[in-house]
Amino acid sequence: MTWLVGLCLLPAAGWGVFLFGTPALIVLAVSIAAAILAELASTLPFGRFTLRDGSAFLTGFIVGLLMPAGAPACVPAAASAFAILVVKQSFGGLGRNWMNPAMGGVVFALLSWPGPMSQWIAPKGGAVQGAVMPPLEALRAAMAGPGAKETTPLAILSSSGFTFSDLDSQVLGWINTHVFSPMGISLPPGTFDVLIGHVAGGIGIVSVPLLMLGAWFLLFRGIIRWHLPVMYLGTFAILAAVFGGLGSGNGWFAGGPGFHLFSGSLVLGAFFVAPDPVTSPMTNKGKCIFGIGLGTLTFFLRFFGSLGDGVAASIVLGNCAAPLLDRWTSRRVTGTQGGAA
Amino acid sequence: MKSEDPPALLFLGLCPAIAVSVRVIDALWMSAGVMLVLLLSGLAMELLSRESSGNEARHSFDRGSPAARWMRALVVTSFLTASFEAGLLALAPAASAALGIYAPLIAVNCLVLGRGMPGTHNLPTRRTVVGLLGRGIGFAASLVAIALVREALGAGTITLFALGGFGGTIVIPMLVEQPLRALGFAGGGLLCLGYLVAVSRAISRRAAANPAGGEAAQ
After folding, report:
1. Which residues in A lie closer than 8 A to residue B177 (C-beta atoms)?
2. Alpha-carbon gap, residue A55 to A225, rounded angstroms
3. pLDDT tens for residues A291-329?
4. What is the DSSP string of A150-209?
5. A141, A281, A312, B35: most buried, per Cβ within 10 A?
6. pLDDT of res. B181
């Protein structure tokens, strides 16, 4: 099952390697190798061999997917090692960790090395002017500055001087003249780039369509259930739509939830990380509450926080509540009194 | 929780332990304060309890109820902590500034560490002193160990006293450029504390399981 999840992440990873080239491949290889070595180092002395369950591989893989392609090799290595040694094995290995290992490792790296964790590489064919940044980071930088008086995230980006690729302008120009202009609508520049993930960012999280492809497969095979991701993304989208514009002074209902759903690691987190059976509630009701909580936390951390895009930190925080949610929502066995039957 | 388990006791005096273990030197000052106040307050409590148990109780607070003992311990410890604070401010202003609000919290640590020690057992003074010293050293060792790990890994430096040509700070090459900053945050402090407790628990469990270490805990 774990291997299948890894397989579903392959298209998005392949896209990242295609966009960012060899550095992305190195980061992925280093983070996976570090996770496997850490797993071996922490289990072999006790006479156990646990690589076959695939969890160490998946942890390293997800850590790598969230890294910027330009990160120096020691950062993914340390994040993976921390994830396996401290977050997973210190609590007794797979099934006993209360926090998602990959997210723990990423939060550790974000806290420890904010500089190396933002060494982005420009995507292949992307326009490079000034500092290379993912759209989300650029948006936050623009909103922190004065005079971000546009109504949508993409408009704020354009007015702040953020450039999108030539491909984007060509495709949008064609679509706008042939499809939308008769209807009196015009898609803002950047729509195409953000939609397909032709932007700078974490290796495996830029391409939302390819992540969704893997997510559909997981849903179809019944490996994850819809409750958690739908509640997570839904809560986040509603909060972002209603309150997201308040920070830039645009008032209510001006957040641009579409942009936020397609940027950062939100989709990866909602479909591949948060439903981790070890660290999420088991009941459907619990999953729904968990998803709502994660969406709320992600909204606050992304719009008012400073730790990356808020997904990793909110999943780590949410994990603390998962056992409680299980207790509250588990069915009582008839004839007993306790909730934790 | 066994009262001879200093790192576990640290949980009770957690706030200062996490706050002052970011730099080794702050941990050293804090340890010095705790040991001094612990020892002096223990001795004072010993004398007070001896005085009041020998004669008829003259004041209501001299009666031997636990609450009265706690009140006495509180007053004595707070007084000594305030004295230590004032002394630190006069003699080592830099250390006083570094400890900040956490210097008054020495009183909390001492109350926790000295719990059940003076005034409740009729121990000879010498054993009281030895016991308190042991607890103080245990606390200091734990605190300095945590501070060493946190500062060395979290900042790439080890800050000690400036002495002669020595500037007071050992810089660890390589690590100082990209330290594991997360360990310098409060969460990193809790992490180190957790590992310290785990290690000390493992050691004491092993000692208990080993029949050579005295009566085995069956």
Report:
1. none
2. 20
3. 999 999 999 998 888 787 889 999 999 999 998 998 888
4. -SSHHHHHHHTT----HHHHHHHHHHIIIIIGGGT--PPTTHHHHHHT-SSSBTTTS-HH
5. A312
6. 86
State mean pLDDT over A43-53: 87
| CA-based nearest distance B92→chain A, Å | 32
Which one, of A70, A63, A65, lies nearest residue A109 by Cα? A63
> DSSP state, A269?
I
In a domain, B130, yes or no: yes
B200: which 2 tokens? 């000390």
Q: Which residue do the tokens 């926790």 mark?
A: B112
Q: What is the pLDDT of residue B69?
A: 73
Q: Write out pLDDT tens, residues B101-147.
A: 888 888 888 887 776 555 445 556 777 788 888 888 888 888 899 99
What would you report as the CA-atom Rg of chain A, rounded to the nearest whole angstrom?
A: 20
Please name which of A259, A270, A202, A186 lies closest in space to residue A233, comparing C-alpha atoms. A270
Count chain A–chain B contacts defined by CB atoms under 8 A. 21
Q: Report the residue of chain A nearest B178, measured CA to CA.
A: A113
Cβ distance of A116 and B178 shorter than 8 Å: yes
Interface confidence: ipTM more than 0.85: no
DSSP category for residue B184: G
Tell me if B1 is assigned to some domain: no
Asked if B191 and A78 come within 8 Å (Cβ–Cβ), the reply is: no
Q: Residue A206: CB partners within 8 Å, gap ≥ 6?
A: A12, A15, A16, A19, A123, A134, A197, A198, A199, A200
> Could you tell me the residue range of the domain that residue B130 belongs to?
6-213
Which residue of A lies nearest to B179 if distances are taken between CA atoms?
Answer: A112
User: Residue B182: closest CA among chain A residues belongs to which residue?
Assistant: A112
Identify the pLDDT of residue B107: 86
Measured CA to CA, the distance from residue B139 to residue B218 in angstroms comes to 29
The answer to whether the CB atoms of B181 and A111 lie below 8 A apart is: yes
Amino acid A155 reads: A
Largest CA distance in chain A: 70
Whether A111 sits inside 8 A of B178 (CB atoms) is no
B218 lies in some domain: no
B178 interaction partners in chain A (CB closer than 8 Å): 74, 112-113, 116
Residue B62, amino acid: D
DSSP E strands, B6-117: none
Nearest residue of A to residue B198 by CA position?
Answer: A90
Number of domains comprising chain B: 1
* Rounded Cα gap, residues A13 and A69, in angstroms: 11
Is residue A117 less than 8 Å (CB to CB) from chain B?
no
